[in-house]
Amino acid sequence: MLTVARLGAAALSAALLAGTAAAPALADSPAPTAAAAPDGLYGKSDPTYDGVWRQSLALTALAAAKVAPADSAVSWLTGQQCEDGGWPSFRASGAGCDAKTEDSNATAVAIQALAALGGHQDAVDKGVQWLKANQNADGSWPYNPGSPGDANSTGLAVNALFAAKADPAGVAKAGKNAFDGLAHFQLGCAVPADQRGAFAYQPDPSAGALAPNALATAQASLAAAGGWLPVAAGVRSDAAPKPLPCPDGAPAAPVARADSAEAVGAYLTAQLAAGGNHLTLTTPGAAPTPDYTATAWAALGLTQSGHPQQAAGALDWLGQNGATWTKGGTDAGATATLLLVTQAAQRDTSALVGQLTALGPAPKAAVSPSAGPTSEKAEDDGIGQYWLIAVGLLIGIGGGLVLSLQRKRGAKL
């Protein structure tokens, strides 16, 4: 998704998917006319740069809440897919596909949404084939085909492969697989201890050095932990994430796959603690501001890696500031992301489910307002209660028949 922080290409694209869409500030490109939100799409704002992104997050979050979305919402997303399997950020009704404008981020989240909904295997398979066809030679993925890879796009592609049950270790180009591509951006033993485990958005264009980036680190952390959307709480570890082991004389080698999730978890834990339970968006020429999106993805990554206690403070902070981030529940992408994080933490989601469903077409079916991680149990309990009632009625009817027969026999005697 093209956002304010990605304006002006690589130098500013480190804050990819920051949550507010804007037109690209390119001197030779005229400002596009704002597009009206089509029927079936969640949210009413211009979908030009985030239509597929926010729709995918919304459908994923609602699927996790066991809300059956309207057919129009699902068909809008599937209708955005191009014949070659990729998705653009958005294309107007009747517009053709341009392979150059298809992007890996939209494709990755669309795959995860359709996998979560179920029943769309053909579209999922085509999306995975598109990812495979557009992988770079170093194993990474770019935002648009033919560009250098970046940590955010690579992390999202790995998430999608996991969701589609395609082993990232087996998705390779020129001998480099998806995990190799992700490791290309992670800072290891060659940097100071307080930077180890972080991810850079991209290597510095001139020197090739890696510098920590908050959003790149947070989004890549979910892939490093082997996760995808929606995140389900995994095996919990009571211990804090382990910092990257760097004994004296350790070579400046890529971070090993086995150490990646713990290393980035340790880095994020330290950053959240230092920042008052949130991460910070730093953009050249602008004052630092809280980064809601990065904070949310950091919480998802920590939860996936088995460290929900390290994510708890971030969840509290997001809960306290959620109205600002979601614009009072009117920003579909932010509301869906906050719902996904809250679901992963197994906290009450009823208000967020209501806010999100109100931003799109009326769902076909929904569970009770207590929708969330305990919904299946609630449904099971409800079914059990119905069975008890039914059995009780049968017993009552049977007892009545027995008494009636006894009375008739007594009358004949």
UniProtKB/TrEMBL annotation:
GO molecular function, one term: metal ion binding
Residues in the signal sequence: 1-27
Pfam families: SQHop_cyclase_C
Calcium among keywords: no
Keyword terms: Membrane, Metal-binding, Signal, Transmembrane, Transmembrane helix
Gene3D superfamilies for the chain: 1.50.10.20
Domain Squalene cyclase C-terminal: residue ranges: 51-142
Organism: Streptomyces kaniharaensis
TM annotation in the entry: 386-405
Database matches in InterPro entries: SQ_cyclase_C, Terpenoid_cyclase/PrenylTrfase
Name of the molecule in the record: Terpene cyclase/mutase family protein
Protein origin, superkingdom: Bacteria
